[in-house]
C-alpha cells in the first residue's frame, strides 16, 4: 500500500503544474515548467537562476524521495552517518546516545512552528501542535528549553531543542546565553534567562533527572518576510542581529556554518521571496543553494503543509538529514587513560607556572617597595 505522501507519475505531473511550485514565474519558465534559458553550464548561472534550479531539484526529488529520506530519519541511530577516518574504529569514537539539534533565532522567527511541522512530517501527528507558538498568544514566548522527539519514537537517535527567541535589542545577553548552551550543554525544561525578565516562580523548574545534552548541530531560523522588509526599508538592525547569531564563534566551533531555515516566505510574492533569500545568503556569506532552506511552516489556510505541500515536507526532511550528517562528522575519539594523564599533568604545569609568575611579581613589587623605603 502506498503511503499518503507517495505519488504516482500522474501525481508528479500534477504537482509540477500546481501552485506548490510558487517560484515558477513567466519570466524564467515556459508553460510546461521548463527554464527558458540553457542551464546546462552551471558555472555561468546567476545566483538567482541557481536558487531557482535548487527549488526545481527539490520539486523533482520530493515526489519519490520523501518517503525514503523520512525512513532514514525515523530509523536513524546516533552515529549511523559516521564515516571512518584516520584509522579509528567506530567503537573508539565518543558518540552520544542521542544527537542534539538546537534551534536558535530572533523572537518570532518561527522556531516553534518549525517544530510542529517536524512532528507533522516525521511523526505523522497531523495538525496536533506539540510546541506552542507566539501566534497562538500575543504574550507567549518560549520560557524554557524544550526537548522534542519529533519522530515520536522511543528509539529515536536524535532530538530537537526549541529555545526562546533572542531580543534584537539585547543581543549581547542573548548571544552569551547561546554560547553557554553550546559550551555546557542543554537540559529539558531549563529556564531561558533574559536581562530584566523573570521566568516566574510558579513555572516548573528543570529536573536534575533530565539528561544534559551536548549540542551537535545548530539550525538558525529566520523570518524571510522581516528580512525582505529590512533590506527594502534600509533598517538593517534585524539582519545584523541575525548575522551576529549566525557567525557566533561558539556555533562556528560546533559546525562550520549552521543551517539557515527561512520561514514565512509564503507571505511574500515569488520575486520578493527569491530576492530576500539571495540577499540574506550574500549578507551572511553562504551559498544561495546549499546554505539555506525555504520552509514556510504554514499554508495560506493556516495549517501545517504535509499532503498539501510535499516540496516543503521534503525540504524540511533534507535539512534535518543534513544536520545529522554534519553532527556525525564532528564526533571525536574517546579519551584514553594516557590522554587524561597528559591533560592532568598539563593542568598541573599550568598551575605551577601561574604560581611562580605570581610569586615573581610579588617579589618584584616587594623589592621595589623596599628600595623606595631605603631612599
From TrEMBL:
GO MF terms, alphabetically ordered: hydrolase activity
Transmembrane parts of this sequence: 340-363
UniProt keywords, alphabetically: Hydrolase, Membrane, Transmembrane, Transmembrane helix
SUPFAM superfamilies assigned: P-loop containing nucleoside triphosphate hydrolases (SSF52540)
Gene3D superfamilies registered for this protein in UniProt: P-loop containing nucleotide triphosphate hydrolases
Protein known as: P-loop containing nucleoside triphosphate hydrolase superfamily protein
Keyword flag RNA-binding: no
The organism's taxonomic lineage, starting at the top: Eukaryota, Viridiplantae, Streptophyta, Embryophyta, Tracheophyta
Matches recorded under PANTHER family: G DOMAIN-CONTAINING PROTEIN (PTHR14241:SF24), INTERFERON-INDUCED PROTEIN 44 (PTHR14241)
Transmembrane helix listed as a keyword: yes
Protein species of origin: Forsythia ovata
Amino acid at each position: 500500500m502506498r503511503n499518503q505522501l507517495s505519488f504516482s507519475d500522474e501525481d508528479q505531473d500534477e504537482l509540477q503544474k500546481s501552485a506548490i511550485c510558487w517560484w515558477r514565474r513567466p519570466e524564467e519558465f515556459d508553460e510546461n515548467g521548463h527554464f527558458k534559458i540553457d542551464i546546462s553550464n552551471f558555472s555561468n548561472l546567476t545566483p538567482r537562476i541557481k536558487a531557482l534550479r535548487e527549488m526545481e531539484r527539490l520539486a523533482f526529488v520530493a515526489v519519490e524521495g520523501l518517503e525514503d529520506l523520512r525512513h532514514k530519519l525515523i530509523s536513524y541511530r546516533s552515529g549511523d552517518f559516521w564515516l571512518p577516518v584516520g584509522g579509528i574504529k567506530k567503537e573508539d569514537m565518543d558518540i552520544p546516545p542521542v544527537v542534539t539539534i538546537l534551534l536558535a533565532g530572533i523572537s518570532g522567527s518561527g522556531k516553534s512552528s518549525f517544530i510542529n511541522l517536524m512532528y507533522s512530517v516525521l511523526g505523522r501527528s497531523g495538525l496536533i501542535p506539540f510546541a506552542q507558538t507566539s501566534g497562538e498568544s500575543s504574550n507567549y514566548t518560549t520560557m524554557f528549553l524544550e526537548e522534542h522527539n519529533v519522530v515520536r519514537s522511543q528509539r529515536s537517535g536524535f532530538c530537537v531543542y526549541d529555545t526562546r527567541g533572542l531580543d534584537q535589542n539585547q543581543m549581547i545577553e542573548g548571544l552569551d546565553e547561546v554560547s553557554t548552551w553550546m559550551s555546557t550543554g542543554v537540559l529539558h525544561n531549563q529556564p531561558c534567562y533574559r536581562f530584566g525578565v523573570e521566568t516566574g516562580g510558579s513555572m516548573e523548574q528543570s529536573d536534575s533527572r533530565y539528561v544534559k545534552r551536548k549540542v551537535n548541530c545548530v539550525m538558525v531560523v529566520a523570518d524571510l518576510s522581516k528580512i525582505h522588509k529590512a533590506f527594502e526599508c534600509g533598517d538593517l538592525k534585524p539582519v545584523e542581529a541575525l548575522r551576529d547569531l549566525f557567525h557566533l564563534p561558539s556555533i562556528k566551533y560546533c559546525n562550520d556554518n549552521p543551517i539557515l531555515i527561512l520561514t514565512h516566505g509564503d507571505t511574500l510574492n515569488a520575486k520578493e521571496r527569491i530576492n530576500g533569500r539571495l540577499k540574506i545568503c550574500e549578507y551572511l556569506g553562504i551559498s544561495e543553494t546549499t546554505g539555506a532552506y525555504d520552509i514556510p511552516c504554514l499554508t495560506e489556510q493556516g495549517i501545517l503543509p504535509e499532503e498539501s505541500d510535499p516540496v516543503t515536507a521534503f525540504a524540511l526532511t533534507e535539512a534535518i538529514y543534513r544536520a545529522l550528517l554534519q553532527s556525525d562528522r564532528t564526533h571525536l575519539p574517546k579519551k584514553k587513560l594516557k590522554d587524561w594523564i597528559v591533560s592532568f599533568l598539563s593542568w598541573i604545569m599550568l598551575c605551577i607556572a601561574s604560581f611562580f609568575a605570581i610569586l615573581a611579581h610579588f617579589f618584584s613589587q616587594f623589592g621595589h617597595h623596599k628600595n623606595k623605603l631605603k631612599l
